[in-house]
Amino acid sequence: MLDARIKALFAVTLASAIAFRATADIRGVIGFGAFPVTPSTLGVWLNGEDEAPLIMVYYHGPPNWADRHWSFESNFTQKEVGWHQYKSPNLTLRVLVDLRAGRVEVQRKSFSLAQNNTFLVVHTTDAQQRVIPLGHYKLLKTGQNPAAVMLLDSDKSLKKRIQNEAESI
After folding, report:
1. What is the span of the domain harbouring residue 115?
2. pLDDT for the residue numbered 107
């Protein structure tokens, strides 16, 4: 069962993103979201001006690894560049989108946005951390379910690939 702190993190993140969207007149990268997809996997995304995700990152680790105190920082003050990061005392989850350059950074590793907008980070909590580009997918706006869940529900082969990659570690 998901810990109350993870659910609280999601609620704070969502409220902050909505408040930020309401007060900022920014085009391009405008906000972020996160949701614990399973006890071992946390989905994190950055939204575009249409509020649909531009990038989706699934962070995988041991069961309940995300059950920790998190702080977060973000910057969406530039029209086409935005970043967001979650920090705990010994771990940082960082995602950046640069629409001008057509690049994304996941854990400070750079990738072409045209080729990949979906990623899996395995060994999230240890020195063997690895970012796996999963390809380019149609990312849906959060609706009745969070965007990270909707993507996996809409593409069973992606869900299976993530499970296989995570199990192979």
Report:
1. 4-167
2. 97
